[in-house]
Amino acid sequence: MGTPITKAVIPAAGLGTRFLPATKAMPKEMLPVVDKPAIQYVVEEAVAAGLSDVLMVTGRNKNALENHFDRMTELEAMLERKGDQTRLAKVRESNELADIHYVRQGDPRGLGHAVLRARMHVGNEPFAVLLGDDIIDARDPLLTRMLEEQVKRGASIVALLEVDPSQIHMYGAAAVEATDDPDVVRITGLVEKPSREDAPSNLAIIGRYVLRPEVFDILEHTAPGKGNEIQLTDALQEMAVNPESTGGVYGLIFRGRRYDTGDRLDYIKAIVQLAVDREDLGADLKPWLHEFVATLD
């Protein structure tokens, strides 16, 4: 058994253009999902899976990310004076979550380039990559299972989701072979955002990866692909077809609850779905939703 995986990389340099003008001055990762920014859910997921060393790959105008995960002594002191221990605990939670580091991506040259910027921090060991647009429900521990599969198979592991074929052009798509586990497939090929006709399957890559460090050497020489960006999917394709030197790539098919905060409509759905399940909000929100929906008939 290898060294336990402890490092997570969270690319967070995107401009969030789909949420303009809200993201003109605020990072899209800081948009609130109920009462926490989206990025905090992602960090919490990493920590829950045992990944206490987190590197965020950021860009310009992302200082709010660092501020959120840092102490705010004036606010803490004010809450202490008021005796508001509940809110004080919530404020302190974000800066006590993990050992968080930051590196700038510089030019936004794609997800593959963002991952490559983590090379110095990660070193020569497997690591996880979590994209901030995907929130995985804490009751469905996807990342923990991916880490277990990485140790078991010695390969890179990506999360896959069955999507409607009409939506596959929005994702990387995987060509797969079955294994002895119905939730795990061996990936034989990957295509970034194919047309419905060219897609090898309706299994889409979603924003969770556990990668072997060989990916860095491959990314170093990966030419720009779709959108003239360095695509992580292209590097994974090379790893998939060269399992002898890279360990290959396997996919874990996720059948749990996932919330997409990268799209405006899905972002609104995510807020409602998570709020309904909250003990402090659900009891009042559910009947209001029934009443509101009834007015639409």
From TrEMBL:
Keyword RNA-binding recorded: no
Q: Where is the Nucleotidyl transferase domain?
A: 7-273
What GO molecular function annotations does the UniProt record carry, in alphabetical order? UTP:glucose-1-phosphate uridylyltransferase activity
Q: What are the record keywords, sorted?
A: Nucleotidyltransferase, Transferase
Source domain of life: Bacteria
Gene3D superfamilies under this entry?
Answer: Spore Coat Polysaccharide Biosynthesis Protein SpsA, Chain A
> Which Pfam family, any one of them, does this sequence belong to?
NTP_transferase
What Enzyme Commission number(s) apply to this enzyme? Answer: 2.7.7.9
GO biological process, any = UDP-alpha-D-glucose metabolic process
Which EC main class describes this enzyme?
transferase
Reactions performed catalytically: alpha-D-glucose 1-phosphate + UTP + H(+) = UDP-alpha-D-glucose + diphosphate
Q: Which family does it belong to?
A: Belongs to the UDPGP type 2 family.
**PANTHER family assigned:** UTP--GLUCOSE-1-PHOSPHATE URIDYLYLTRANSFERASE (PTHR43197:SF1)
| UniProt protein name | UTP--glucose-1-phosphate uridylyltransferase
Say which species the protein is native to: Cryobacterium glaciale
Protein's gene: galU
